[in-house]
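BUG-283 | component: ligand-complex export | severity: low

The export step for iron/sulfur cluster jobs runs without errors, but we want the raw record kept on the ticket for reference. Input record follows.
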Amino acid sequence: MKLIIAKSAGVCFGVKRAMDIAREAAQKYPKDLYTLGPLIHNPQAVEFLDKLGVKGKDQIEHIPRGTVIFRSHGVSLKDLMKTRKKGLRIIDATCPIVKRAQLYAKYLHRHGYDLLIVGDAQHPEVEAIRSYIPEGVDVVEDVEASQRLGPWEKLGMIAQTTQSFSLFKEVVAVCLERAKELRVFNTICHATTIRQMEAVEIAKKVDCMIVIGGYNSGNTQRLAAICRDIQPHTYHIETAQELRPRWLARREKIGLTAGASTPSWIIKEVELKVRRLKNIRGP
Ligand code: SF4
């Protein structure tokens, strides 16, 4: 029996930073403190913040007064304007790597490139990046969608920071044949690439893979999909309670990884449950 836990599992630098900012803000502004949307895509962490007095609101209109924390995914231009107009205090917890992607998008637009973002159009990070570019932006989630676009005179490309690097490369290859001039900025977060590469290596070695993270977390969903391509016995769970003993029955080697917004206490609980069910001693 063996349990392999990814070293890269769990909270990334940007999420840790956002959580720290929120905790500090809760001490400084104990009243009327809000986040615009969930601070991170993990219901358990959001519940924890709620207990500290950091309340999640979906719209600026629902925030009457006080302070608003912008989450690690960034904020759209429209919401930024509304926040300023309302006179709310702003604490910006946008991850610097997401900010960098926003800057590249603006740079490409300023220099006359149409912009193609490889990512999930509905994800708040992509929605925010898009909002700063008035026109000429497309978003594709797969290679097939990119094949239906173009041709372009000048095309600039970036990726959602948690996108799969191999997909980004494939879409770039398609666009290279459809654009006279192509400028590519690799905006994928290094932590994401490392996490995905490590997950691939572990999934190859085990006969069951557990991926922990919010069901609303895009990067966790992607991580689970990458693992499932290699190891069909891959299970995406949010908490230890969801782990089913039958998934582990007759499995000799179990792998464990987690998305960028999964708190360490949840990973530990899952680890302990796997060890208990399979009688594996730690570490
Ligand atoms: S995954 Fe990367 S880009 Fe996203 S919040 Fe974490 S560090 Fe920032």
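Assignee comment: Attached the raw record above. The two ends are 13 Å apart (CA to CA).
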